[in-house]
Fold each of these.
Amino acid sequence: MTADLLAAPRSPRSATQRRRGNLEKWGWIYMRASGVLLIVLIFGHLFVNLMVGEGIRGIDFAFVAGKFATPFWQWWDVAMLWLALIHGTNGMRTIVNDYVANETTRKVLVYGLWASAAFLILLGTLVVFTFDPCLGLSSTSADWLQELCA
């Protein structure tokens, strides 16, 4: 019975198997490379937010507005967002591929994962690059915000 399910070790692979194998190889390489980059990005993010300046007490709206006013920190956070979401989605795709036997269900789940990741990447990128602390500024806003937006 198992002989019918497993291909012979030296049998040629079909085009679909070759494509998926190549996708799996690049997914594996991406997971390793993005993992290393994420370690640098996340620990840099944590160091700047928690160790520099006032530490955790200094994190407020003004701190975030100041960081998002600098292109360096915008790109740092966007790179962290993109890498983390794609890394996590690729990991979930691997789990779905391993545990979901039904091909239709597997495809629906994988497409759903990638669609939600794409939506979150788009939304997060828009938030980072269009962040405006002066949007909706009222006369009752804090003094520092009034000065920042003047």
Note: The longest helix spans residues 15-50.
Amino acid sequence: MKLNLVARGHDLTTVQSVDDLAKKASEQEISTLQLALSRSFPDLATDSHAINPGMGHYIKQALAKEDVSVGILSCYINMIHPDLSVRETVLRQFERYLQYAASFGATMVATETGSVSEAGYTEKNFSDEAFSQIVEAIRQLVRAGEKHRMMVGIEPGLNHPLYSLDRVAELIAAIDSDYLGIILDPTNLITAENHHQQVGLVEEAFERFGEKICGLHLKDYLVSDEGEIVPVDLGTGMIDYEAIVKIAQKHRPYLYIVLEETKDSALKHAVSVLDHVTG
């Protein structure tokens, strides 16, 4: 069975235009993108006031010239920003992305949860209060997703309030909606101490809430001398990609598999490597 492989638009670097992005994706044998507008096109206004259906149609048509499409539209926000006015602004932006995602051809809008601290990492993210805040924010976004018939894809991360499979299960139990999806990045949920358990983590996730997993990030890594997880191009690190993609195929055929942090010409090599895995 062929894999439904996706590349992040901003992993194709030095992109100058939508046409350029389409061409570079096609050259790497990538036909589907996870597109974060502000990261691929930093000079383009893409906030809640700027995004519009014409923008979506233009980008969709330009990519289609090279048989490339947007599968996932990213809108990375800190949904629990400590400044409530900023929080309201970014939640409104995400809602706008949900409103116009279909014009881009996307099937979902994705984000991480963020942090209760402007500085990023804080142990306060692991509190029940922080978790309650993300539940409230995601419930608001999912209601907008239901209105616009667009899935909300939420990505857990070790340093965020959604930091474990148990917390993901709690979130799913708290928000009963077909428009809530989970984007699983196992490399975001491991440390230098437990990274050898990654395949088991993926298997457990699919067994516990596989029907909610709407995307899988396949991010290769090395463990540094300082004990940090360092992303690298697929096939140059320690991830057991063969076992992980087989789990995904078993539970969710043709699931989006995003080659996160694999950049430029390394994407074509990754596509070839994964083609050999799946026969």
Note: The chain has a mean pLDDT of 96.
Amino acid sequence: MSTHRAPIIDTLTGSFLVSTPRMPDPRFEEQVILVCAHNNEGAMGVAVNKPNPAFSLSEILNGAHLPIPEKKLPPVYVGGPVELESAFILYQSDYQTDYRLEISPTISLSRESRVLEDIAQGRGPEKFLFLLGYTGWGPGQLEQELVSDGWLTVPASDHIIFDTPDEFKWKAAAMQFGIDISTFGDYIGYA
């Protein structure tokens, strides 16, 4: 008697999804998504290269009645089209908090308000992104999108997330593996 098990998928947690020029959804054009969770129930990630000029972190801190630190603050990012009113903080894990999702040994994600309070007080993570919204996929949905050439999957890089200017992240994420993403797919099928 054999037992049937659901297929185990390799997790993409901690990887970048880099949209290719073949991406059919214009909302994800030139996006770099950090996959924060991926399992048989679906996937969740945040875009790390799309700042939203309509918001500033200073305004958000002010609205929460928190002090504004002296140091330059990063922009507010659009993490994705789902729950745009939900705030997330993606940060290097040298800072610790109780409620976090460990994405890799060096990167965590949290929705805990204490992280924002610590940032305002100057004792939060040194490197972080403040994001509104996220990107989500149902069971099997991301895997189907990967088959259609909409995404290139590469290992994530802390340097690209936190130290590379936003306008260069899309090309830099692919170029770290020698791939010119702007021409990716131009020659597929013409062997």
Note: The helical segments are 57-63, 113-120, 141-147, 158-163, 166-175.
Amino acid sequence: MATRRDTAAVREHLPIEQRRAQLLTAAAEVMREQGVAAATTRAIAERAGVPHGSVHYCFGTKTALVRALLQSEVDRSVESARHRSSRSTDLEGVLRNVLEAQLESVRTDPGHHAMLDELIALARRDPSLADLPGWEHERYVGAAAERIAEWSAASGVALARPAREIATTIMVLATGLGDLWSATGDRAVLDRALDDCVRGLAARLSEPA
């Protein structure tokens, strides 16, 4: 028997893209609160207030939903980082802003960061999602490299290393700093380590290639 909530959802005829967005939001909420394992299709449908069959209608399989969720969340993180890293002046400033942008969700939204980590771990174990860890890495590195190259072109300052190489180093540093923050929760320790990373990388990039 359909519940009142299900009946209301059935009457609400949304375009499929809006329904997909609604279900992705619900899936993210469940995963953030209870973990990826708790996000069954039934739990997601209940959170969204739609019939259980809506999940399969919109995505076909739960695997397809997980893929769409990870891609949308990574895209959102990349766009947020791109906006934050636009506030740059000199080389050290652009490196700091790009690196801080990568750390933003770790520091301010640990639930989102933990959800992404769980989703990537799931993707590594699932052959049908095995391409996603590499895709995620490329999205972050590509976006950071683009921002660094844009700054170099706008400032007229030549880079001592290719923008992509610098961006890859930044991703490695961001991972380590993120682990430091997750382990300690100490902002002062994180800020000191961040300063050392930025100054060391800027000094290295000021040397001839």
Note: The two ends are 70 Å apart (CA to CA).
